[in-house]
Structures are given as structure tokens and as C-alpha cells.
Amino acid sequence: MRNRHAGAPFADGDEQIEAYLADLSVPALLASCVHLLPPERHDEILDGPVRPQGIYINELQGFMSPEDQAAGRKLALEIIRDYRDRGCPEPEPPSDELARRIMEFLAVEEVTPDYLAMMLDELGLDGRDHRRPERLPAAADYPAVIVGAGMSGLLAAIRLGQAGFPYVVLEKNDDVGGTWWENTYPGARVDVASHFYSYSFDDGGHWSEFFSRQPELRAYFAHVADSYGLRDHIRFGVEVTGATWNEDDATWTVEVEGGDPITARVLVTAVGQLNRPLVPEFPGSFDGPAFHTSRWRDDVDLTGKRVVMIGAGATGFQLAPAIAERVEHLTIIQRTAQWMFPNPGYHEGVGPGVDWATRHLPFYGRWFRFVEMWPMTDKGLVAAKVDPAWEPQRQSVSEINDMVRVMFGDWIREQVGDDAELLAKVLPTYPPTGKRTLQDNGTWLKTLQRDNVELVRAGVERLAAGGVVDSEGVEHPADVVVFATGFRYNDLLLPLRIRGRDGVDLREMWGIRPAAHVGVTVAGFPNLFLLYGPGTNAAGGSSAILGVEFAAWFMTECLRELVTGRHRTVEVTREAYDAYYARFQDEMRQMVWASPHIEHNYFTNEAGEVHGVNPFRMVDYWHWTRRPDPADYVYS
Ligand SMILES: Cc1cc2nc3c(=O)[nH]c(=O)nc-3n(C[C@H](O)[C@H](O)[C@H](O)COP(=O)(O)OP(=O)(O)OC[C@H]3O[C@@H](n4cnc5c(N)ncnc54)[C@H](O)[C@@H]3O)c2cc1C
Q1: What pLDDT sits at residue 436?
Q2: 170 CB near ligand 1 (under 6 Å)
Q3: Taking the CA of residue 244 as centre, how many other CA atoms within 13 Å lie in the half-sphere pointing to its CB?
Q4: Ligand 1 test: best mutation among 57, 179, 200, 494, most atoms within 8 Å of CB?
Q5: Which of 144, 267, 545, 615 could cross-link to 587 by cystine, CB 3.0-4.6 Å?
Q6: Per DSSP, what are the bridge partners of residue 38?
Q7: For residue 517, how many other CB atoms are within 10 A of its CB?
Q8: Quick one: three-class SS letters along 346-399?
Q9: Is 283 exposed, middle or buried (0-12, 13-18, 19+ CB in 10 A)?
């Protein structure tokens, strides 16, 4: 069978192909062309003069001049024409050495062996899904329950199914998709490029926008559920309340709201880090419709209404521009200004050439994923690391972090012009990248400059019958109040009551400090696996899906040992669990996310510590999750 990344043969005419090439990333296009040339001609591209000059987040053309891009397309057209005329023979998958050379061509820097190994695993250039677990006949005796059918739960279902575990997914909603099913507010979209915010083994292929909107993401996860045959295993409308470990028969009893408990030998939580809305309990009450952004009310027409939006973090930043035109007046009550990442192409559509190239040009989709992934993976950590000698820490945490502050600040100043009052409101005064940095193409500040929009930099004192009273005592009249106040980020696994060995309650044991060994396993809780667990949120860039894929692989490796050894339990040792936590906190204390200078930092708990975010390099996390260290795990 033809390698699934080799592309389907085609017979399009020259003019049509030329038109398609105009839509493409020239670096990825040239990388694809390497596969169409005989080995003795690879250097024409890999050592040739037409090449990317650098790589950067969302810079899909590798800083090539327009002339170089045109030259690259011309060269590609000749090579593609010849390939077509030869009947599109299937190219060999690249050797590791050739793959490394292509990666270095695209990355414009050395790709060290550790990154090469991670990237080969991610890209599966040989056509294999490298994270697909081996099928284990004995897995049939280990029924599993997965809680949640969002991105993580669907992945767990695919992986457990591939390994041969009987499993059921319990999902409180009526459909799959989690975040992308629930968050239907206008303007909702990803801020990690879609060709990367997708599973490594199924990149969706045909996104209509580079940063897709919620309906398309929801459809993607529905497509995954359908095409991997997951729906028969999912029970919708079933909310799990807790689970209890039974020492006698080494099983979990999974308790569900209003239904019979379910027994399993393996329990996977995939309930998300951002699934429980945070609605602050303001005093007073409002007489009209008031709702959280993740509980969007389509029955409330905002046209011609006065809307007060409380909060403007990642969600409000997307919502306000999407509704400003149709409301009579929009008041945005925001405590903290947000840093934003300049991304002029944030709302850009994907031309038909991308779809064509992904379907037909050998490895184009893979190399395009690389172009999007490489600058997002680990690069952001450098600017997030605190240099204790740097002053003033209140403003930035290191020299490079300060350079980011200047760059982001210039982007804001450019748009605000000489409006000093607005600038004072929108220019953050805390270190950049300390919170999730928002993707911006200018719509946010344009929205704030509209006559019918007012930004109020204040907190909320109380709700009133006819509006919202801010912390300065000013009442803002409203017909509708929207809470863009985020999620209960630090209440991981809320409201589950998971009781492990000796009846220990997981959330009570954690208190304000949720932890898991490599984000996946917890001492005292055998055969329990957490996906998108503590310390796995990719705040330093990258896609949440990448980390969850690593974690799911780790889970299946633990289970492989469990099943092949016919053991009853697999459990991380207390020593390994504690040591990982200590290492995690040591690292985290050196990162901007734990800086005491970040205003209203939702990453931190009441003690100022961070537990949700991953402070480590993804390449290290990949290595640690390759397989459980036998010294760290006990099988009984
Ligand atoms: C608005 C928004 C935008 C985001 N954008 C990005 C982005 O651009 N890039 C990025 O990398 N990450 C992003 N994230 C973070 C992350 O990628 C998503 O939250 C992702 O959906 C996480 O997948 P998940 O399956 O782990 O959790 P979720 O998508 O939250 O799914 C959890 C599922 O579990 C179910 N569930 C929860 N509790 C129970 C229970 N007790 N019983 C039964 N079912 C239960 C829920 O109903 C839900 O379906 C975003 C998050 C949000 C909220």
C-alpha cells in the first residue's frame, strides 16, 4: 500500500498546478520536492541558493524574499511537472539522515539527535503511526473506563482500542469534542495553528482557516469519533461523580450520576483542565440574561443590546471583536491588560492549493506541520525563564523576555497611535508570556477604538438589577451580562471523588497542589491514568494535543507491562512521584508563570505556585514518556 503521506497521483494541468503553488509555504513545498528528485539531485534543493532564511511562529515563508519565493515556486513547478509526467511514482520514505537534512533546511539550524528522534516519532514519515500501541491479546481481560470524550478522551479510546482493551467512555455532554463542543461563543477559535493542533496520525488535512473556528474543530473531533469507530463505545449524558479502588479484586468502581456503577480494571480521566466554568460569586443580582461564555445562549440575540462583558482574557479577546458590530453598546470590564502576539494571518483562510498539496504532493502536509510545529516547540521557554539577576522583575524576567516586551509593546503602540488614554489601558505592565499570550491580528484594538465599545479597567463590585457596578462604583447599564471569566483551572478533576488505596481521596490528598508523575500517574492510585493532567498544559507554546499524545503513549506502555505480565496493578512509587513533583516545582519556580509580578495570574494557586503548566522542554517530556522506568513503577 502506498505510504499515506506520499500523496495520491494526479494529472492536473500546468496552469492549475501553478495556481495551487501560489497558496503554499515555499519552504514546505521545496522540502516536498526533495522527495521527487533522485538522491544525486537532493543537494540542488538542500544546498541550493533558494532556501528559507529563518523560521518563526506563523511565518510560513521562512523569511524568503518575494523573489526567492517566486524562484522556489518556479523550481518546484518544473520538478512537480516531471513527477506528474512520470505517473507520480511512490517516493521512498526518507532515511533518518535525509529527514534530518530536510528538517535542518526548514529549521535553518541544527536538529540535534534528541529532537530528530521526537520529530520522526511525530511525523511518521514511513507512513506508520508511531504511537499506535501493539495489540495485546491479554488486554481483553482488562476492561477500562475513560471519563470524557474531548480531545484527550477520544485519543485514549483510540489507543486502548488499538491495544485490544475493552473500554467504555463516559461523557456528560451529548456529543464529543469537549472544549470544542461546549465553547460556541462567537469568535471561538484555536490560537495554535490547526495543521498542528490536530492529532499526529490524523491532521484533518483540509482546514479552511489556518486557525480554525470552533465549528470546524467540533466537526474534526466528530470526524475522529466516526472514522475510528468510537461512538459505539461512548455513553453520552453520563456524568461521573467518582471512583473507588477495590483492593480485593484490584478494580475501580466508577460511580455515575443517577445510574449504576461500572467496574473497570483501568481508569482514565480525560476531563480537561478548562472544563469547569469559573463564575465569580458577585454580590447582587442582574435582572436580564447573564451567562458564561462556555454556556453560550443562542436564544439571546445580542443585536441592538447593551452588553457588559466581564473579563477579557483569552476568551473575551476573541468574543468582543465578534459581537461589537451588532450590539448597541459593549462595555468590557477588564482587570488586567493582555499581552498579545502579532499574528496578521490569524483570521486568514486556507487557499485551495493547500488542500491539493496535502492530498497530492509527497510529504507536503508533514513538512508543513513541521514548519508550524518547530518554532512553537520549546522555543518559547527561553523567554519564559527567569534570570534572577535581571531588573526590574516587575516588568520583565530576563533580557530576552524584555526584548519580547518591547516587541509586543511596539505592536500595541503602532495600533493605538497617539491615544494616550487608551494606551495606558491596554499596555500591560507585567512581564510578557506570564499568562497565555493571545494571538492578535489587530481586531482587538480596532474593536476598542469603536464608538460603541468602552474598555473599563477595573474589577466588579456587584451586579445590579440593570447592569454591573465596577470596583470604582460606576454602574454600567446592560441588557445582557456575559461572564468571560475563564475556568476553575486550579481545581483539577473537579468535582470527581477518586478514592485510591486505603480510601484516600485524590483531591483531598492534593489539596491546592495537584501533581502526577510525568503528568499521568499518582502514587496510591493504581491503574489510574490522567490525561491532560497536572503539569502538562503547554503554556510555553506548542499544542496541548502534542503533550497528551506523549502522555497517552506513556499510559499504553505502562499498560503493556501490566497486561503482558498478567499483573493486577501498575503503580508509580511514592519516591518517584515525590521526586518528580520536587523537580517540577524547582523548574517552575524559575519560570515567568510563577512570577509574583503577573497580575491576576490564573495559573497560580493561593500560595502563588503553579501546577497546571508544563515548565519542561517538550523534547525532555517526550523522552521521559517513552517508557516507564522500571525503578519508578511497581507491578503486583
Ligand atoms: C476556549 C479554549 C480554547 C483553547 N484553545 C487551545 C489552543 O488553541 N491550543 C491548545 O493547545 N489548547 C487550547 N485549549 C486547551 C485544550 O487544547 C482544550 O481544552 C482541549 O479541548 C483539551 O481536551 P481534553 O479532552 O483534555 O479536555 P476537554 O476538551 O475539556 O474535554 C473534557 C471532556 O470531559 C467531559 N467531562 C468532564 N468531567 C466529566 C465527568 N465528571 N463525567 C463525564 N464527563 C466529564 C467534558 O464534558 C468534556 O467533554 C483551549 C481551551 C479552551 C477552553
Answers
A1: 86
A2: yes
A3: 8
A4: 179
A5: 615
A6: none
A7: 29
A8: CCCECCHHHHHHHHHCCCHHHHHHHHHHHHHCCHHHHHHECCCCCCCCCCCCCH
A9: exposed
Q: Describe the chain by its helix, strand, coil percentages, rounded to 5.
A: 35, 15, 45
Closest residue by Cα to residue 501 from 399, 566, 571: 571
Residue whose grid cell is 487608551: 422
**Bridge-partner residues for 209, per DSSP?**
349
User: What pLDDT is recorded for position 347?
Assistant: 96
Ligand 1 pocket mutation pick from 220, 275, 292, 294 by most atoms within 8 angstroms of CB = 275
Ligand 1: which residue has its CA nearest to atom 49? Answer: 178
Please work out whether the CB of residue 571 comes within 6 Å of at least one atom of ligand 1: no
Q: Give the pLDDT confidence score for residue 203 in this predicted structure.
A: 86
**C-alpha–C-alpha distance, residues 570 and 632, integer Å:** 10
Parts of the chain with a pLDDT under 50: none
Q: Which stretches of 395-543 are DSSP H helices?
A: 399-416, 420-426, 443-448, 506-510
Comparing CA positions, the residue from 397, 426, 419, 411 lying closest to residue 589 is 397
- Please give the single-letter amino acid code of residue 92: E
Quick check: CB of 547 below 6 Å from ligand 1? no
- CA 386, CA 590: separation in Å to the nearest integer? 5
Looking at ligand 1, which residue's alpha carbon is closest to its atom 34?
A: 148
Strand order in the sheet with 475-477: 460-464, 467-470, 475-477
Task: Determine if ligand 1 sits within 6 Å of the CB of residue 255.
Answer: no
81-119 pLDDT tens trace? 999 999 999 999 999 999 999 999 999 999 999 999 999
Q: Is the CB of 178 under 6 A from ligand 1?
A: yes
pLDDT score recorded for residue 540: 74
Ligand 1 centroid to 274 CA: how many Å? 6
Give tens-digit pLDDT for 184-221.
999 999 999 999 999 999 987 789 999 999 999 999 99
* Domains contained in the chain, CATH given: 14-130+364-376 (no CATH), 142-276+489-635 (3.50.50.60), 290-345+379-483 (3.50.50.60)
Q: Which residue's CA is the closest to the ligand 1 atom numbered 3? A: 190
- Which atom of ligand 1 sits closest to the CA of residue 192? 8
**pLDDT over 70 percentage in the chain:** 100
Query: Rounded to the nearest whole angstrom, what is the distance from the C-alpha of residue 429 to the centroid of ligand 1?
Result: 30
**Residue 519 near ligand 1, beta carbon < 6 Å:** no
pLDDT at 54: 97
Residue whose Cα lies nearest atom 15 of ligand 1: it is 544
Residue 55, C-beta contacts closer than 8 angstroms, at least 6 positions apart? 27, 62, 106, 107, 108, 109, 371, 374, 375
Other Cβ atoms within 10 Å of 126 Cβ, number: 14
